[in-house]
Description:
The protein is mostly helical. 71% of the residues lie in helices and 0% in strands.
Amino acid sequence: MTKLSSWFVAAWVVLLATAFVLGYKSKSLFESSSQTFSRNLDPTSHATSRPRQNSHASLPATKIVTTSFLDLYDELRNDAAPVRAEYGREIEQMSEPGRAATLTTFYKAMALCDLKQGIALAKGITDQRLQYLACTALIEATALPDTKLIVEMLMQLPDSPITADSLNGQLHMWSYLDAPAVAAFFDEHPKINADVIKANLLENWASSDPPAAQAWLEKHAELTQDPEALKQLILGWLKADEQKATDFLVSHSEEERFSQAIGWAALDAYCTSAEAAKALVNKLPPTAKSEALRTIGEINVELVAKDGMDQNAAFGNLGHWLLTFEPAEWKKGVGTMLGYWQQRDFDAMVQWMAALPWESKSAVAAEVPIDSDLPVEETFQRVFGIPDDSVREQLLRSLVLKLGDNPEERLQIVANMQLIAGQLVRLQQLAGEAP
Length: 435
């Protein structure tokens, strides 16, 4: 045999011996780990444990919070129902600070392995705080398709503000999944006070089946007179069939109960297209048109300041769009918009006004409201600082008249302001004038 061959055989012998030793040690390590794990699962390690009814060693309740969630889920999934129930009893008997965390973990796992039993166990908890924690854990971990079971659980719990809030939240979620089922649920439980949720239900339902949603609303007299419910119906309907929803809305545009729906439909249209919004608004009678423009004036400019557009530019675009209507129609809308704009950037608002034609500038200045977020004298100090003479004078005249209904009332308010002498004199002159 050559030296090379001898070396090769020797190397193989060493490798085989090493593998044998490592294998033996791995086996020993595995047995040691198994024994340790078995001790951790030994029910006798927990003082309050009772004999388990399943054949495999079970996890003591005190170990639940330190066990991986996947292992806990696997443990509970393989346990018999009485063993799970015993876990629940053991957890209730534990002391703090570990009890709350253990209970939360246990009920989240129960939501996944056996939600119905988890609900039954939670309903049986006598401590109200622990019951709230258990129900919250079930709610957080329950899959959306099982929302109905959570709603039924909440219906059977004692009334409380927490229960009511949770119930409303689950009903809202359920309405996204199965609106007809939620409608049937409300019909079965007419005493539930959840008008907001019913309105949300109508939007979700109308977005997929407008006739069914409208038919359900019309079966409930209180909803047919609820502006919020009608608004949500229309907003959902617009997603499904814009033309029919618009035609329906216009046909009811002189009814006060539809005023919110009209305003929000116009606002929704403006966020998509100023031209579409104008087409809708121009179909409305004068009063409805004015209210629609007022609602659009409340717009969150972040919704329309797209593609990097500056928010001041979005305000300016909205202002110019509003001014395309008749003054009697745009007054409320412009006043509302300017109220929001001056709170965000007073100087930018003033610059926009300064660039308007004279006749528009005067009319627009008359609609600027007093900023309720500032002390009144600070409002006027800010106006006195406007560099554009015409805007400054028009705003001073307009705002001072908003201080009171008569000269005496206005003069009294001005007299209490801490202003420099020249400013005080000018405001007193304006305050004493008749409108």
